[in-house]
UniProtKB/TrEMBL annotation:
InterPro entries: HDOD, RNase_Y/CdgJ, UCP036888_HDGYP-like, YbaK/aa-tRNA-synt-asso_dom_sf, YbaK/aa-tRNA-synth-assoc-dom. It comes from Azotobacter chroococcum NCIMB 8003. Pfam families: HDOD, tRNA_edit. It comes from the Bacteria. This is Signal transduction protein.
Length: 465
């Protein structure tokens, strides 16, 4: 018998990954397939696959909570970490975008938070983006079988309250030992090495000074957040010490051409490249997405500036730097505090539904934005940069140098909407675009131009031959 063509209504019906569809059929579960929509009001299950030497464990908890591995250890007495390799194999094999909270999907014991079943209905990830499964709580309880039950999640509302309480004075008001220790370490000399790709290119330019121009050095430094920040800092300190009334250093080009010179920059950069990375190599290997996002954001900041009316445009060199360095605190954590970075990375992976600010403040008492902003101040970088880093997630910020922070907010969220950077997205307020003199169409055009140049951007980040 010939197959009938699907109707228009069937084509619009959300589709499930085959393994989830087959599993639901086998279990005979009465579920409703729904599109994800904000503010549905129904509790949602978050799933995490963890492991230790004993074996793996599927952990289920409400999506309005954070899973804290330390807290979990006090409850069950096990030191668990994300089961990354196993989870990735499952995702790749079955083409899943998220782990559904279905115990039968993974051959592991299960633990769930007792607050998970308080409502009449629940939402589960289906493994397909923006497609959820709605299920009656009693039917879901039957799926859990003899799974262990405990109370271990940390309510997000509590984390938001704690973060807001310290928002005005981020470095001074934080009371945690870890935050104080981080600040004390940053007050000492901090040097962050460039990317290995950058080091190889620096050595090439240094070994052939006659063929090396200021433009070559500038173009290289502008692709590396660690080098760019330190070069501008060196130039600012050198400029003010020799010429107290001199104009400020406002860009990498300014630092190289007007103050330091290419030879000095290459020599200083080679010095940074000798910093030992042995104890940090594990964290450093995973930083490719960081470098890519930094360069995309910087390039988009330049494009957004060009799209703004002339009277509203900020200093282009500083705008580019604000984009390149917007996540500099994350880089600082990776190099200066590898144990904290490892802990943070684990919690970010098992809590993809939680903004990183809440996770960082909960674990460390401080956020990467606060770390980056304070380091900009300590290095005597232009004030615009510390403001941009500190206030980049606040679309309502209208204080001093707000245009830089506002542009970073726009750039980061435009990129996230195209799958570059963090997974959590926010709708860009129209009022913010109006005040910047940008239309959504022109902002998207600027983004399209950046993405059209993706190949060229990747070449800049690529290993030199």
């Amino acid at each position: 018998m010939p197959k009938t063509m699907p109707t228009a209504a069937e084509l619009l019906q959300p589709q499930l990954p085959p393994i989830i569809r087959d599993l639901l059929d086998r279990l005979g579960l009465p579920v409703r397939i729904v599109h994800e929509r904000p503010g549905s009001g129904l509790p949602r299950v978050q799933a995490a696959l963890l492991e230790d030497d004993t074996g793996s464990l599927l952990v289920l908890f409400p999506r309005d909570q954070l899973l804290d591995l330390h807290r979990l250890k006090t409850v069950i007495g096990r030191t668990l970490v994300p089961a990354e390799a196993r989870l990735q194999r499952l995702f790749d094999r079955e083409r899943l975008s998220a782990l559904p909270g279905l115990p039968a999907l993974v051959d592991s014991p299960c633990l769930y938070d007792e607050r998970l079943l308080q409502g009449p209905n629940l939402l589960l990830d289906s493994g397909q983006p923006h497609v959820l499964l709605e299920i009656d709580s009693e039917h879901y309880r039957s799926l859990l079988g003899d799974a262990a039950c405990a109370r271990f999640g940390v309510p997000l509302i509590r984390l938001r309250h704690n973060l807001q309480a310290h928002a005005e004075e981020p470095m001074e008001a934080v009371q945690g030992f870890t935050a104080r220790r981080i600040r004390q370490r940053l007050e000492r000399r901090v040097e962050i090495p460039p990317r290995q790709n950058t080091v190889l290119r620096i050595r090439q330019l240094h070994g052939n000074p006659r063929a090396c121009s200021d433009d070559d050095v500038t173009n290289l430094i502008e692709t590396d957040p660690a080098l760019a920040a330190q070069v501008v800092s060196w130039a600012g300190l050198a400029d003010t010490s020799h010429h107290p009334s001199a104009e400020r250093v406002l860009s990498v080009e300014d630092a190289i051409v007007r103050v330091l010179g290419s030879d000095v920059v290459l020599n200083l950069s080679l010095g940074l490249s000798e910093i030992k990375l042995a104890e940090h190599a594990e964290a450093w290997e995973d930083m490719t997405p960081y470098w890519e996002e930094a360069l995309y954001t910087a390039t988009l900041m330049d494009g957004l500036c060009r799209a703004m009316p002339r009277g509203k445009r900020p200093e282009p060199g500083l705008a580019y730097l604000a984009g390149l360095l917007h996540n500099f605190g994350y880089l600082t954590l990776a190099h200066i505090f590898p144990s904290y970075f490892r802990l943070l990375s684990q919690h970010l992976r098992i809590n993809p539904h939680v903004p990183h600010l809440l996770i960082e403040h909960h674990l460390l008492g401080i956020t990467r934005e606060q770390i980056g902003a304070w380091l900009m101040e300590h290095w005597r970088m232009p004030e615009e940069l510390s403001v941009a880093l500190r206030s980049q997630h606040d679309p309502g910020y209208r204080g001093r140098h707000a245009v830089y922070a506002n542009l970073v907010y726009v750039a980061v969220n435009l990129l996230r909407n195209r799958g570059i950077g963090g997974t959590l997205q926010e709708e860009i307020p129209q009022q913010l675009l109006d005040e910047l003199g940008l239309t959504r169409a022109r902002a998207e055009e600027a983004l399209d131009r950046v993405l059209a140049a993706e190949t060229a951007l990747r070449v800049l980040l690529a290993q030199p031959e």
